[in-house]
Amino acid sequence: MQLTNRAKKLEKKPMTLAERAYLPAIFQGLSITMRHFFMKKATVRYPEEVRPFSNTFRGLHVLKRDEQGRERCTACGLCAVACPAEAITMVAGERKKGEEGLYREEKYAISYEINMLRCIFCGLCEEACPKAAIYLQPDKMAPPRYERDEFIYGKDRLVEPVSPDERSVRGIQLTADQATTLRTRLA
Amino acid sequence: MIELPALGWQSIVIFIVFALSLLIATYCTYAERVIAAFLQDRVGPDRAGPYGLAQPLADAVKMFTKEEFFPGGANKALFVFGPCLAMITALMSSAVIPFGNIMNFGNNLFFLQGIEVNIGMLWVFGVVSLGVYGVMIGGWASNNKFSLLGAIRAASQNISYELAMGMALIAVLMISGTLSLRDITLQQSVAGEWHVWNIVKQPLGFIIFLVCAFAETNRTPFDLPECETELVGGYHTEYSSMKLGLYLFSEYVNIFVVSAVMSVLYFGGFNFPFQYELRDWFVSNQGWELASAQNLITLLGTVGLFLKIFAFIFFFMWIRWTLPRFRYDQLMRLGWTILIPLAIFNIVLTGGLILAGVI
């Protein structure tokens, strides 16, 4: 039954001698693969060589400090409200006397946790924050781990370290040895 | 007739020949992966060692530490014997390949060759054809009907291509008039004459031999003995750990041996152009002794032979990552209805040309 007039009648032509001999096609194929042998590789040697991140990349979170090294976060909870994945939990506390150098305002976060298994890196927490405390770093990814509880990031891993020695690489806090080597390399 | 040297010093050469074949075959596994990666715009293994050069070692460790598995109801002795036989036959055939001419130290003559026998080519063919038993026994002992089917396919493929291979070879033997691989090599360059390799005299025979060599070593496009799409996996479906490793490794030893045989039969073996002129130049212009000049030429020739072998090995891998697999009936048709008649035609043609005095 013919439904349309668009059907094309395909004609199967008999193969020419060169096509039947099969060898010219083989040589053509060989030349193609040989060209690819000398082409630039599409892959990179990953751990040593990293592709540049895009300008809009949103990576691992960081809780910023202000110019005097005080934590900016006031545990207002707006980020947790804005979070569509409900990955952020926090407990607020009151600043005591003598802690003015640690926290910027009277209220601060006693604990602040982000569950990286839930986080979708949408960046809404960053937009919601009135104190410019939480940011998604443009050059760091949440590193892979073996245990699920290692993906709960507490303040120890989120708050920006005070001294440059305690900088983290790919979001992992440096050990004392690694910090020493980094310091010697920077010096 | 060349006297066999007393066993002793020659055994060192035998040891080196076997060690070399194994080493090259080992690195073929690495080369295969690197070449495959390059042909597909990837980088390939580069984690183990510099440029991934320790990769074969890592593979071996993995193979050795994997679980030994025996299928239920399988004949254990035969099950182990299959891969051993495949490996033994692959290695044995490398014994007669001349890797170089004679080295002369004082009055001690060294053959850069495992053993020099005047039935060399016959030896290679006899031993290589035994390799089918390794496949057959492996498929039979697996106690798996799919493995057995795969083994039967592999055996029928190997046998049918061996016929065409032998017939292509006969034309070479007609020209050289000897079965000794060393003599065939030496006849491709006679002092004072043009340096003519057999490829010039036997282009058709070489193509037939090449195609059959691919089928013999079970390489793409004739790698039907082991295919996941049509069979579950082939004759070694039930194999694991080093037993599977031996099967796969014997394939690479086979590639090395076949490349060496092709280089010797068609590409002049350890000969290279102007070798006698070079030797005479060292003797007359540099004042070297004839023996030491000959030793230098021998060493250069060995290097040249290995370059030829490596080029062939590269070609094998190049083909593998270019061409798709044949269908089984296409494979059989190519073997029986195209290659064997072509080989017979080649024999007749060669005979006619020899009678006419052309070659």
CATH names the topology of the domain at 60-162 in chain A as Alpha-Beta Plaits
- Got a strand count of chain A? 7
What's the tally of helices of chain A? 6
Query: Into how many domains do the coordinates of chain B divide?
Result: 1
Strand order of the largest sheet of chain B: 1-2
Protein name (chain A): NADH-quinone oxidoreductase subunit I
Binding site for [4Fe-4S] cluster 1 (chain A): 73, 76, 79, 129
Membrane topology (chain A): Peripheral membrane protein
InterPro entries (chain A): 4Fe4S_Fe-S-bd, 4Fe4S_Fe_S_CS, NADH_quinone_OxRdtase_chainI
Structure description:
Chain A: Its EC number is 7.1.1.-. Chain A: Keywords: 4Fe-4S, Cell membrane, Iron, Iron-sulfur, Membrane, Metal-binding, NAD, Quinone, Repeat, Translocase, Ubiquinone. Chain A: Pfam families: Fer4_7. Chain A: It catalyses: a quinone + NADH + 5 H(+)(in) = a quinol + NAD(+) + 4 H(+)(out). The complex is a heterodimer of chains A (187) and B (359). By secondary structure, chain A is of the alpha+beta class. Chain A has a domain of 103 residues: 2-Layer Sandwich (Alpha-Beta Plaits), CATH 3.30.70. Chain A is built from six helices and seven strands; from the N terminus they run H-H-E-H-E-E-H-E-E-H-E-E-H. Chain A has a three-stranded antiparallel β-sheet. In chain A, a hairpin with a 2-residue loop joins strand 6 and strand 7. Chain A starts with 16 loop residues before the first helix and ends with a helix. The model of chain A has no long low-confidence stretch (mean pLDDT 84). Chain B is mainly alpha-helical. Chain B has a two-stranded antiparallel sheet. The mean pLDDT of chain B is 87. The interface between A and B is medium-sized, with 14 and 13 residues.
